[in-house]
Protein backbone atom coordinates (compact mmCIF):
# COMPACT_ATOMS: atom_id res chain seq x y z
CA UNK A 1 0.00 0.00 0.00
CA UNK A 2 1.58 3.27 -1.07
CA UNK A 3 1.46 6.89 -0.06
CA UNK A 4 -1.32 7.44 -2.63
CA UNK A 5 -3.86 5.60 -0.42
CA UNK A 6 -7.25 7.07 -1.23
CA UNK A 7 -9.48 8.06 1.67
CA UNK A 8 -13.17 7.47 0.84
CA UNK A 9 -15.40 10.52 0.80
CA UNK A 10 -17.56 9.28 3.70
CA UNK A 11 -14.60 9.14 6.13
CA UNK A 12 -12.50 12.08 4.93
CA UNK A 13 -13.74 14.36 7.70
CA UNK A 14 -12.31 12.26 10.52
CA UNK A 15 -9.57 10.02 9.10
CA UNK A 16 -5.93 10.58 8.21
CA UNK A 17 -3.43 7.98 7.11
CA UNK A 18 -0.04 7.71 8.83
CA UNK A 19 2.48 5.78 6.76
CA UNK A 20 5.18 3.48 8.21
CA UNK A 21 7.99 5.67 6.88
CA UNK A 22 6.79 8.59 9.03
CA UNK A 23 6.83 6.68 12.36
CA UNK A 24 9.07 7.47 15.31
CA UNK A 25 10.11 4.95 17.95
CA UNK A 26 8.54 5.83 21.32
CA UNK A 27 10.58 5.85 24.52
CA UNK A 28 8.61 3.68 26.94
CA UNK A 29 8.94 2.21 30.41
CA UNK A 30 10.31 -1.33 30.21
CA UNK A 31 7.08 -3.21 31.19
CA UNK A 32 5.09 -1.36 28.50
CA UNK A 33 7.83 -1.91 25.93
CA UNK A 34 7.88 -5.63 26.68
CA UNK A 35 4.08 -5.95 26.53
CA UNK A 36 4.00 -4.28 23.10
CA UNK A 37 6.83 -6.47 21.82
CA UNK A 38 5.01 -9.57 23.05
CA UNK A 39 1.83 -8.52 21.24
CA UNK A 40 3.75 -8.00 18.02
CA UNK A 41 5.28 -11.48 18.37
CA UNK A 42 1.85 -12.91 19.18
CA UNK A 43 0.42 -11.69 15.88
CA UNK A 44 3.13 -13.69 14.10
CA UNK A 45 2.52 -16.87 16.11
CA UNK A 46 -0.98 -17.85 15.00
CA UNK A 47 -0.30 -21.55 14.52
CA UNK A 48 1.61 -22.01 17.78
CA UNK A 49 -1.18 -20.33 19.73
CA UNK A 50 -3.86 -22.32 17.92
CA UNK A 51 -2.18 -25.54 19.08
CA UNK A 52 -2.99 -24.62 22.70
CA UNK A 53 -6.46 -23.25 22.00
CA UNK A 54 -5.57 -19.57 21.72
CA UNK A 55 -5.92 -16.88 19.08
CA UNK A 56 -3.72 -13.78 18.77
CA UNK A 57 -5.29 -10.75 20.38
CA UNK A 58 -6.19 -8.20 17.73
CA UNK A 59 -7.12 -5.15 19.79
CA UNK A 60 -5.51 -2.90 22.37
CA UNK A 61 -6.68 0.15 24.30
CA UNK A 62 -4.10 2.71 25.46
CA UNK A 63 -4.97 4.96 28.37
CA UNK A 64 -3.00 7.74 29.98
CA UNK A 65 -2.60 11.53 30.22
CA UNK A 66 -2.48 13.72 27.09
CA UNK A 67 0.94 14.10 25.47
CA UNK A 68 2.31 10.78 26.77
CA UNK A 69 2.86 9.20 23.36
CA UNK A 70 -0.21 7.05 22.75
CA UNK A 71 -0.44 8.03 19.07
CA UNK A 72 3.34 7.68 18.67
CA UNK A 73 3.15 4.16 20.09
CA UNK A 74 0.24 3.14 17.82
CA UNK A 75 2.06 4.54 14.78
CA UNK A 76 5.32 2.79 15.71
CA UNK A 77 3.48 -0.50 16.22
CA UNK A 78 1.84 -0.30 12.79
CA UNK A 79 5.18 0.62 11.19
CA UNK A 80 6.89 -2.40 12.78
CA UNK A 81 4.26 -4.54 11.08
CA UNK A 82 4.88 -2.64 7.83
CA UNK A 83 1.32 -1.30 7.77
CA UNK A 84 -0.20 2.20 7.53
CA UNK A 85 -2.25 3.50 10.45
CA UNK A 86 -5.80 4.62 9.71
CA UNK A 87 -6.00 7.33 12.36
CA UNK A 88 -9.60 8.21 13.29
CA UNK A 89 -10.25 11.32 15.36
CA UNK A 90 -13.40 9.96 16.97
CA UNK A 91 -14.59 13.27 18.40
CA UNK A 92 -14.98 14.39 14.76
CA UNK A 93 -17.20 11.36 14.12
CA UNK A 94 -19.87 12.65 16.48
CA UNK A 95 -22.65 14.09 14.34
CA UNK A 96 -25.37 16.61 15.13
CA UNK A 97 -28.12 14.58 13.47
CA UNK A 98 -29.85 11.41 14.63
CA UNK A 99 -27.90 8.32 13.62
CA UNK A 100 -25.02 10.27 12.07
CA UNK A 101 -22.41 9.08 14.57
CA UNK A 102 -23.38 5.44 14.09
CA UNK A 103 -23.19 5.91 10.34
CA UNK A 104 -19.67 7.33 10.66
CA UNK A 105 -18.60 4.41 12.87
CA UNK A 106 -19.95 1.97 10.29
CA UNK A 107 -18.05 3.76 7.49
CA UNK A 108 -14.74 3.66 9.40
CA UNK A 109 -15.04 -0.02 10.27
CA UNK A 110 -16.15 -0.93 6.76
CA UNK A 111 -13.03 0.74 5.40
CA UNK A 112 -10.91 -1.20 7.89
CA UNK A 113 -12.51 -4.53 6.98
CA UNK A 114 -11.66 -3.95 3.32
CA UNK A 115 -8.02 -3.58 4.42
CA UNK A 116 -7.92 -5.79 7.52
CA UNK A 117 -4.69 -7.45 6.38
CA UNK A 118 -2.88 -4.34 5.19
CA UNK A 119 -3.76 -1.54 7.65
CA UNK A 120 -4.40 -0.89 11.35
CA UNK A 121 -7.31 1.15 12.69
CA UNK A 122 -6.46 3.69 15.40
CA UNK A 123 -9.37 5.25 17.32
CA UNK A 124 -8.08 8.38 19.04
CA UNK A 125 -10.04 10.23 21.76
CA UNK A 126 -12.01 6.99 21.99
CA UNK A 127 -14.20 8.12 24.88
CA UNK A 128 -16.04 10.44 22.46
CA UNK A 129 -17.92 7.44 21.03
CA UNK A 130 -17.51 4.81 23.77
CA UNK A 131 -18.95 6.60 26.82
CA UNK A 132 -20.81 4.53 29.41
CA UNK A 133 -24.43 3.88 28.53
CA UNK A 134 -27.10 5.24 30.86
CA UNK A 135 -30.76 4.67 31.75
CA UNK A 136 -31.53 8.29 30.88
CA UNK A 137 -34.42 8.52 28.41
CA UNK A 138 -33.44 11.92 27.00
CA UNK A 139 -32.92 11.98 23.24
CA UNK A 140 -29.19 12.73 23.49
CA UNK A 141 -28.67 9.83 25.95
CA UNK A 142 -30.62 7.44 23.72
CA UNK A 143 -28.48 8.50 20.77
CA UNK A 144 -25.26 7.92 22.72
CA UNK A 145 -26.49 4.52 23.88
CA UNK A 146 -27.30 3.61 20.28
CA UNK A 147 -23.81 4.75 19.24
CA UNK A 148 -22.18 2.50 21.86
CA UNK A 149 -24.36 -0.43 20.80
CA UNK A 150 -23.31 0.10 17.18
CA UNK A 151 -19.67 0.30 18.24
CA UNK A 152 -19.95 -2.94 20.21
CA UNK A 153 -21.34 -4.76 17.18
CA UNK A 154 -18.54 -3.47 14.98
CA UNK A 155 -15.83 -4.39 17.49
CA UNK A 156 -17.28 -7.87 17.88
CA UNK A 157 -17.42 -8.50 14.14
CA UNK A 158 -14.10 -6.91 13.17
CA UNK A 159 -11.30 -9.11 11.82
CA UNK A 160 -8.78 -6.27 11.69
CA UNK A 161 -6.22 -4.97 14.18
CA UNK A 162 -7.63 -2.13 16.27
CA UNK A 163 -5.91 0.24 18.70
CA UNK A 164 -7.89 2.80 20.71
CA UNK A 165 -6.60 5.64 22.90
CA UNK A 166 -8.19 7.66 25.68
CA UNK A 167 -7.20 9.91 28.55
CA UNK A 168 -10.57 9.26 30.22
CA UNK A 169 -10.59 5.50 30.78
CA UNK A 170 -13.15 5.85 33.57
CA UNK A 171 -15.66 7.13 30.98
CA UNK A 172 -15.44 4.06 28.72
CA UNK A 173 -18.42 1.71 28.75
CA UNK A 174 -17.40 -1.55 30.53
CA UNK A 175 -18.71 -3.72 27.70
CA UNK A 176 -16.59 -1.80 25.21
CA UNK A 177 -13.54 -2.12 27.48
CA UNK A 178 -13.98 -5.90 27.60
CA UNK A 179 -13.90 -6.13 23.80
CA UNK A 180 -10.22 -5.16 23.81
CA UNK A 181 -7.70 -7.94 24.29
CA UNK A 182 -5.03 -5.66 25.81
CA UNK A 183 -5.21 -2.64 28.12
CA UNK A 184 -2.01 -0.61 28.52
CA UNK A 185 -1.50 2.43 30.72
CA UNK A 186 1.04 4.92 29.36
CA UNK A 187 2.32 6.88 32.34
CA UNK A 188 4.35 10.07 32.49
CA UNK A 189 8.00 9.16 31.82
CA UNK A 190 10.27 8.17 34.70
CA UNK A 191 13.87 9.30 35.14
CA UNK A 192 15.33 6.88 32.60
CA UNK A 193 12.74 7.70 29.95
CA UNK A 194 13.03 11.48 30.52
CA UNK A 195 16.80 11.27 30.12
CA UNK A 196 16.42 9.42 26.80
CA UNK A 197 13.71 11.78 25.51
CA UNK A 198 15.76 14.88 26.40
CA UNK A 199 18.83 13.41 24.66
CA UNK A 200 16.82 12.56 21.54
CA UNK A 201 15.29 15.99 21.10
CA UNK A 202 18.45 17.96 21.91
CA UNK A 203 20.26 16.19 19.05
CA UNK A 204 22.37 17.09 17.13
CA UNK A 205 23.62 19.09 20.13
CA UNK A 206 25.66 17.27 22.78
CA UNK A 207 25.43 18.82 26.24
CA UNK A 208 27.15 16.18 28.36
CA UNK A 209 25.94 13.92 31.15
CA UNK A 210 25.88 16.53 33.98
CA UNK A 211 23.49 18.78 32.10
CA UNK A 212 21.35 15.85 30.95
CA UNK A 213 21.08 14.75 34.57
CA UNK A 214 20.17 18.28 35.69
CA UNK A 215 17.49 18.62 32.99
CA UNK A 216 16.11 15.19 33.85
CA UNK A 217 15.72 16.19 37.52
CA UNK A 218 14.36 19.65 36.69
CA UNK A 219 11.66 18.24 34.41
CA UNK A 220 10.27 15.60 36.75
CA UNK A 221 6.57 15.22 35.92
CA UNK A 222 6.84 16.51 32.34
CA UNK A 223 5.09 14.65 29.52
CA UNK A 224 7.01 13.52 26.41
CA UNK A 225 5.23 16.22 24.41
CA UNK A 226 6.35 18.94 26.84
CA UNK A 227 9.92 17.60 26.91
CA UNK A 228 10.07 17.73 23.14
CA UNK A 229 8.76 21.31 23.04
CA UNK A 230 11.31 22.45 25.62
CA UNK A 231 14.30 20.79 23.96
CA UNK A 232 13.24 22.10 20.56
CA UNK A 233 12.91 25.53 22.19
CA UNK A 234 16.54 25.36 23.34
CA UNK A 235 17.69 24.42 19.84
CA UNK A 236 15.56 27.16 18.33
CA UNK A 237 17.23 29.73 20.59
CA UNK A 238 20.69 28.50 19.56
CA UNK A 239 19.85 28.90 15.88
CA UNK A 240 18.02 32.23 16.13
CA UNK A 241 20.31 34.06 18.60
CA UNK A 242 22.64 35.44 15.88
CA UNK A 243 19.67 36.73 13.85
CA UNK A 244 18.27 38.44 16.94
CA UNK A 245 21.67 39.85 17.99
CA UNK A 246 21.46 37.95 21.27
CA UNK A 247 24.28 36.44 23.27
CA UNK A 248 24.08 32.67 23.76
CA UNK A 249 22.93 33.13 27.34
CA UNK A 250 21.56 29.85 28.70
CA UNK A 251 19.76 31.38 31.67
CA UNK A 252 17.92 33.84 29.41
CA UNK A 253 16.96 30.94 27.13
CA UNK A 254 15.60 28.92 30.04
CA UNK A 255 13.62 31.86 31.43
CA UNK A 256 12.06 32.49 28.02
CA UNK A 257 11.01 28.84 27.90
CA UNK A 258 9.31 29.00 31.30
CA UNK A 259 6.88 31.58 29.92
CA UNK A 260 6.52 30.39 26.31
CA UNK A 261 6.20 26.61 26.81
CA UNK A 262 3.92 25.51 29.63
CA UNK A 263 2.37 22.22 30.75
CA UNK A 264 -1.41 21.89 30.74
CA UNK A 265 -2.92 23.29 33.96
CA UNK A 266 -4.07 19.77 34.90
CA UNK A 267 -0.46 18.64 35.23
CA UNK A 268 1.77 19.17 38.25
CA UNK A 269 4.41 21.80 37.50
CA UNK A 270 7.92 20.33 37.17
CA UNK A 271 10.63 21.92 39.39
CA UNK A 272 11.93 23.75 36.30
CA UNK A 273 8.91 26.08 36.50
CA UNK A 274 8.90 26.58 40.26
CA UNK A 275 12.46 27.20 41.41
CA UNK A 276 14.99 29.80 40.31
CA UNK A 277 17.66 27.66 41.97
CA UNK A 278 16.90 24.85 39.51
CA UNK A 279 17.38 27.18 36.56
CA UNK A 280 20.56 28.62 38.09
CA UNK A 281 21.98 25.11 38.46
CA UNK A 282 21.45 24.34 34.77
CA UNK A 283 22.54 27.80 33.64
CA UNK A 284 25.86 27.42 35.46
CA UNK A 285 26.98 24.63 33.16
CA UNK A 286 29.20 25.02 30.07
CA UNK A 287 27.40 26.64 27.13
CA UNK A 288 26.89 26.66 24.13
CA UNK A 289 26.90 22.91 23.39
CA UNK A 290 28.83 21.10 20.71
CA UNK A 291 26.91 20.35 17.55
CA UNK A 292 27.70 16.82 16.37
CA UNK A 293 26.76 17.35 12.73
CA UNK A 294 28.88 20.51 12.39
CA UNK A 295 31.65 20.36 9.77
Topology:
Blueprint: E1 15-18, H1 30-43, H2 46-50, E2 59-63, H3 70-80, E3 85-89, H4 100-114, E4 120-124, H5 139-157, E5 161-166, H6 174-178, E6 182-185, H7 191-202, E7 205-206, H8 209-218, H9 224-240, H10 250-260, H11 276-283, E8 290-291
Parallel strand pairs: 2-5, 2-6, 3-4, 4-5
Antiparallel strand pairs: 1-3, 7-8
Report the portion of residues in β strands.
Answer: 5-15%
- What is the CATH-assigned architecture of the largest domain? 3-Layer(aba) Sandwich
Q: How much is the radius of gyration in Å?
A: 22 Å
- Tally the helices: what do you get? 11
Number-wise, the strands total 8
Largest sheet: 6 strands, mixed
Spatially, the strands of the biggest sheet line up as 1-3-4-5-2-6
Main structural class: alpha/beta
Number of domains: 2
Helix content: 40-55%
The CATH superfamily name of the largest domain is P-loop containing nucleotide triphosphate hydrolases
Tell the overall outline.
Answer: elongated
Q: What is the fold named in CATH at topology level of the largest domain?
A: Rossmann fold
Poorly predicted ranges: none
- Give the distance, in angstroms, between the N- and C-terminal Cα atoms: 39 Å
- The CATH top-level class label of the largest domain: Alpha Beta
**How confident is the prediction overall: mean pLDDT?**
92
Query: Helices and strands, in N-to-C order?
Result: EHHEHEHEHEHEHEHHHHE
Amino acid sequence: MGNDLKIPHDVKGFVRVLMPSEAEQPILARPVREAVHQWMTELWATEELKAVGLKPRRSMILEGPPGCGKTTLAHHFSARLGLPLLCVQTDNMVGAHLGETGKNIAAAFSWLEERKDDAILFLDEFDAVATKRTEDNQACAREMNATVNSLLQRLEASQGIIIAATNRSEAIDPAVWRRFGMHLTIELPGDEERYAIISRYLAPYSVGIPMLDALTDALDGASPALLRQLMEGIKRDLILAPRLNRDLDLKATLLRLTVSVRPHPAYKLPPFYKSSAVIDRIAGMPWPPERKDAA
